[in-house]
Design goal:
The chain has 440 residues and is an alpha+beta fold. 15% of the residues lie in helices and 35% in strands. The strands form five sheets. Strands 15, 16, 17, 20, 23, 24 and 28 form a seven-stranded mixed β-sheet that branches. A six-stranded mixed β-barrel has the order 2-3-11-4-10-9. A hairpin with a 4-residue loop joins strand 29 and strand 30 (428-433).
Length: 440
């Protein structure tokens, strides 16, 4: 009997290890990577709209930023100590995945500010979705299983309830449905390479969805136990990284990597990551100060008692386009930019606060760099291309906004062309400038 159990266990370990790496793009140390597509890319994105009829991309971007900021800040912790987030668009970067056996392909938004992997499922009685969007049908998959209410995986963090059949039901952000397990296949668009992962816990959504979207779900990358990176756990050394292509590299792809950093990531800077009591599932870093060009703003001043004020806890969110700063930091920053840039004021559009008139929004000569100084001397330098955003052919605006919600956010525009690596085992954020379109 003992021999039989040993062989069964050995088979399971060999099967799981070989399955999770099947067809994957393994660089070293078991790492594998997939493409990330910007939502506005005409290359392959299902969200690409070449001629928006009602609102511009800049206006949509501003609206998504305010929505995400409210999402991250509005809901106080529940009795269990976890947020109950309100609905918000979860991200600007998409990845392709296949769910079930046989598999069905879907697009999902990648979000470090979310902690659940989910997609819409049949029956979908009150789903928000595009008419042509595919939808997963659990009964057609041989590897689908609903999580039982008695299972430890039926997490109270997602406002669970039980149905008469003892299936675990959840409610989280944009979606309500059945907590389930399924085989996931992650694919690189246009490539046969893939990674197959059995028994991933995910939300099989029967209500809600992403409004006005052809995206079918979300891949949550937060600290929560049900996020994808948490479920991969030791397989990837509790590490993941990404490199986000800029918005104007319309035919290029970024990359998300699970496992050790890719070889091209050199000269990495590092700063400690932490959690906050009101958001234990987020990735927070400490912003010490800001600079415009060579001018340090000295926000983190030391008073007569030796205490420092001005340092800010900032959450890293791949789903928020614009960076949000505390009102004090923001208005000190805009004052310094006005003093140094000496550019003519432009029309403020779509909620952007600091704007300049230009002849060609692609020409950013005269615009300064902005540096975010993080804890342990880690300087995140924003060139004009990621510190500012072209809202019209003749108007360029600061790609930041003041936060009146008590939370600061490092948005995805500021993260473009930057290798960003999360070491969850040691709670360290690594980063370095990188040409994300060329993986160099």
């Amino acid at each position: 009997m003992a021999t039989t159990l040993f062989h069964l266990l050995l088979f399971f370990l060999i099967y799981t290890t070989s399955t999770i790496m099947a067809g994957s793009k393994i660089r070293h140390g078991g790492a594998f990577s997939f493409d990330l597509i910007h939502r506005d890319s005409p290359l392959i994105s299902p969200l690409y709209a070449p001629s928006p009829k009602t609102v511009s991309q800049a206006e949509q971007l501003a609206q998504r930023s305010v929505s995400r900021l409210y999402h991250l800040a509005s809901s106080p912790p529940s009795a269990t100590g976890f947020r109950s987030p309100v609905a918000a668009d979860p991200g600007d970067y998409l990845m392709r995945l296949v769910i079930g056996t046989p598999g069905r392909a879907f697009w999902a938004a990648v979000s470090t500010g979310s902690t659940l992997v989910w997609t819409q499922c049949l029956p979908c009685t009150s789903c928000i979705r595009e008419p042509a969007a595919p939808i997963f049908e659990p009964r057609l998959s041989s590897t689908y299983h609903a999580v039982d209410c008695n299972s430890s995986r039926c997490s109270r963090r997602y406002e669970v309830a039980c149905d008469p059949d003892r299936r675990c039901h959840y409610s989280y952000a944009n979606t309500k449905g059945t907590l389930s397990t399924e085989t996931f296949t992650f694919t690189i668009p246009g490539s046969p390479e893939n990674v197959v992962i059995p028994a991933i816990i995910f939300g099989c959504g029967h209500e809600g969805g992403l409004e006005n979207s052809s995206v079918d779900g979300v891949v949550g990358l937060g600290r929560g136990s049900l996020s994808l990176v948490s479920q991969l756990g030791s397989y990837v050394g509790k590490k993941f990284s990404y490199c986000l292509v800029p918005r104007d590299n319309k035919n290029s792809k970024g990359r998300i990597e699970f496992g050790e950093a890719i070889p091209g990531a050199r000269n990495l800077r590092r700063t400690p990551m932490k959690t906050e009591t009101y958001d234990p599932e987020g990735y927070y870093v400490t912003l010490i100060d800001l600079s415009v060009g060579n001018k340090r703003l000295n926000l983190n001043r030391q008073d007569g008692n030796g205490d420092r004020s001005g340092s800010v806890s900032m959450v890293i969110d791949s789903g928020t386009p614009l960076t949000a700063l505390s009102a004090d930091a923001y208005y000190n920053l805009t004052s310094a930019i006005n003093e140094i840039a000496k550019l003519p004021s432009g029309e403020r559009k779509y909620g952007f606060d600091l704007c300049y008139a230009v002849n060609d929004s692609r020409d950013l000569r005269g615009f300064p760099e902005v540096t975010m100084h993080f804890e342990d001397g880690a300087d995140w330098i924003l060139p004009p291309s990621t510190a500012f955003y072209p809202v019209a052919v003749d108007v360029v605006c600061l790609a930041m906004l003041p936060s009146f919600y008590g939370i600061s956010v490092l948005g995805n525009i500021a993260q473009q062309n930057m290798h960003v690596e999360f070491d969850l085992r040691n709670n360290i954020l690594y980063f370095a400038p990188r040409d994300c379109a060329n993986n160099s």
